[in-house]
């Protein structure tokens, strides 16, 4: 009996590992049960037996990997608020409460880079199933951190803060999903031997302006407008050069179309 249980547990673990690897690499919609079972060295019946299907398998994976992480995040945020006061945390401190548990867990994992890439994929995957799962299971956590950011950035409206957080976390998730963790850390360390705190501080300094920087002032807007006005001329010149070289141009201006028709 114990041998059968051990075998069953081993099969279940292999399915979870295979699902995680394929999810990180391809996303939820692109991976198939056949790919999962082939990588796990098992069959479709094993998925139905242990999980009941692809979505249930994915739920088990997210539960096993994210629940502990988010519990640590909530506890760390609460500890910081007790220490510094709920209004004593700036945006960098709140971001730290999000990132430090993830870094700690990646350090404790045998495959730290895989764990970080999983987080990046989870938060950037466009699948309705993944998005709905996160909303249903982790909305209280998202809400808790949103309120912390709102207190840290009282000058930003809630609508604008939601937009900024979405862009900030989306950009970071895309980076983590496609980047080797060692290469990312090496880039942040710039050849120096730095502590985890300094490395994270550098990462936060790069992304926190997404939350804190004001929208474009008049001079910045004017600069962008001047570039926009020059864009048509630049495109026309590029098309003219392509015509001269005998290459297919891009979107031709009217004068170029008329010239070709003559």
Total strands: 0
CATH class of the domain at 66-216: Mainly Alpha
- Largest pleated sheet: none
Write the element-wise H/E pattern from the N-terminal end onward: HHHHHHHHHHHHH
Helix percentage: over 70%
Rg estimate, integer Å: 24 Å
Basic shape: globular
Question: Could you name the CATH topology of the domain at 66-216?
Answer: Tetracycline Repressor, domain 2
Strand content: under 5%
Number of helices, where a helix is a run of at least 4 consecutive DSSP H or I residues: 13
Distance between the termini: 86 Å
Can you put this structure into words, describing what you see?
With 262 residues, the protein is mainly alpha-helical. It has helices at residues 2-26, 33-40, 44-50, 54-84, 91-108, 112-124, 128-152, 158-178, 181-189, 196-207, 209-212, 218-244, 254-261. The termini are far apart.
